Amino acid sequence: MNASHVFANDSVEALVDGIEPKSSHDGSIPRFTWWDHKGTTEWVEHGFAKPTKASSVAVYWFDDGPNGGCRAPSSWKLFYRVGESWLPVEEASAAGTEPDKYNRMQFKPVETTGLRIEAQLKPNYSAGILEWKIAE
User: Fold this and answer.
1) Count of the separate structural domains present in the chain
2) Which residues, in sequence order, are CB contacts of 49 under 8 Å at separation 6+?
3) Chain segment 42-101, per-residue pLDDT in tens
4) What backbone phi and psi angles, to 5 degrees, belong to 32?
5) How far apart are CA 120 and CA 100, in angstroms?
6) What is the reported pTM?
7) What is the DSSP string of 68-106?
8) Structural domain of residue 85, as residue ranges?
9) Span between the terminal Cα atoms of the chain, in Å
10) Angle 109-33-81 (CA atoms, 0-180°, nearest 5)?
11) CATH label of the domain that carries residue 127
């Protein structure tokens, strides 16, 4: 697991810890955020020890509104690793940013050593993820 930035009180491991969120503002579980980066393009990646097949992901966005500084991003894209390059997944369904649910994206199956989410943060807000599921 790696990211363009992670807030010191959060961790990238929280993305795949298997703890199910009760809502997008569930403060009782570990989380990953890009705080205090705001309005930027950020990324987080999940590497695999050996080539792994994937055809869908599900992302549960963190949102601590109305008083906090994190919201679901404006948009996001998914990439997969081929050698040292990151390529966009093909035939992808919509990349949702709805709160309080898993936003699922299906795509043409790939075999890869890593997946990367690239998120465009909303102006004046940061973003985060409570859980990221990957399925074959």
Assistant:
1) 1
2) none
3) 999 999 999 999 999 999 999 999 999 999 999 999 999 999 999 999 999 999 999 999
4) -115, 130
5) 19
6) 0.96
7) SSB---SEEEEEEEETTEEEE-SS-------TTS-EEEE
8) 2-135
9) 19
10) 25
11) 2.60.120.260
